[in-house]
Amino acid sequence: MAERSTPVRRIGLVEDHESVALGLAAMLADQADLELVCAAPTVDALLAQHDDLDLAILDLRLSDGSSPKCNVEQLRAAGLETLVFTGAENAFFVRSAARAGVLGVVRKSEPAAVVVDAIRIAASGGQVASTEWAAAIDGDPELGDVGLSPRQLEVLELYASGEKLDRVARLTGLAPQTVNDYLQRIRAKYAEAGRPAPTKTDLYKRAIEDGWLPIPEREDARRRA
């Protein structure tokens, strides 16, 4: 009886650093069931090259300034599930991608065997469990969890990003006093977790730490982009 051949999963990589693309290609070179078909610096470029891929591997921070959430949504709209391959240095980016429905998150610093195994699982449609994945869903395990409700989180994101209390009330459909009550509860939860946030600036810092707001870019990084 003839042996059934192993299906080859076709992989596309969205990555604008050539060294990373070359490294991933080397990792997959001797894998009979995985083939890196193409690498592109943007999602648009990847989709223009190939429409018969089994999995997209996505770097979160791309030089075109695109958001992880939009990139994942664009890939999934094209019928491509996505695995995030990242340095995971920005909790906001990781969480944003997780919310958009990626199959998992794997660090670039992981051993090659771990990366290959994650790609194999994702290419077959499986979820890739990892510390980064858990952190994206549940928050950074090294930070005290404050257990914010979805409504409290909505208020925190708006207020900490610079909106005034009255405008937060208008945007959320809540009464100003209700927004103020939410903010008091949020501050109390942070204090209970050992991460006090008595001022608006402190709330902004906590929101960045927890990945609810993006890390502000340095001026020199913006000039290079």
Automatic annotation (TrEMBL):
GO terms for molecular function: DNA binding. The modification 4-aspartylphosphate is found at D59. GO terms for biological process: phosphorelay signal transduction system; regulation of DNA-templated transcription. It comes from the Bacteria. InterPro entries: CheY-like_superfamily, Sig_transdc_resp-reg_C-effctor, Sig_transdc_resp-reg_receiver, Tscrpt_reg_LuxR_C, WalR-like, WH-like_DNA-bd_sf. Keywords: DNA-binding, Phosphoprotein. PANTHER family: TWO-COMPONENT RESPONSE REGULATOR (PTHR43214). This is NarL family two-component response regulator. It comes from Rhodococcus coprophilus.
